[in-house]
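Problem 12. The chain below contains 257 residues. Write out its predicted structure in token notation.
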Amino acid sequence: MVELTDILKDVNARIADACAKAGRDPRDVEIVAVTKTHGPEVVCEAWEAGLRIVGENKVQEAAWKQPQSVSGPEWHLIGHLQRNKVRAALELFSCFHSVDSLALIDRIQTIAAEVGARPSILLEVNMSGERSKSGMRPDEAPAAVERALASPNITLEGFMTMAPFVPEEKVEETRPVFAGLRELRDRMETQFGVSLPRLSMGMSGDYAVAVEEGATWVRLGTVLFGARPKVKPQRTVDAGDAGESGEGGGEFDRVMD
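Solution.
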């Protein structure tokens, strides 16, 4: 069995090589360790290997996993956030990567003000135009940036996107998606006169290309921890949000690493 520390050496070497090609400093790129469906022991393993950010797709999964995990990591929600789960999410995560609507921005601001939180957010943009991908359209980004900047309990850090899933030999096809998000970020910085330093883009199959195009957070799960175990999710209910307005039903499950 290959140790995580050895896997990380290879991953970090690929990141360093991608940074060299782009004239970037590898220290500007951080790994978000995606522990979806893995147990708390994997969070501990990641922490001991030097990874400092844990990414989870679902509020419910983090709710049972986080109390059993090692203290120390910064927890990020990288999956879809329903408006009726914002209150619970604010108790678990410091950053939301997939804020995809004005309504969600408003909801986060309202609940964050109530509980005295100040989360960081990224705006998720569907740069590929795929119907299967969530995220706002690129032309919706200016209004979302404006709304987020006007929300006193929210810190807008940047943007997130997902590239189309392609086989390894076609990974270059993802480049326009990543370059497009970087260019969008640059335009928004100029238009609003702000710094938006974070770009969450790149997963296990395409992170090297994403880094070449400016990724600062790469969301890695499978390449670090192997195939996900098939487990029955453990559900938790937050009574404070159970009856609040927002999307109903289960969370939209997406592969985010």
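Discussion. Confidence is low (pLDDT under 50) at residues 232-253. Students who got a different answer should revisit the alignment rule from Section 12.3.
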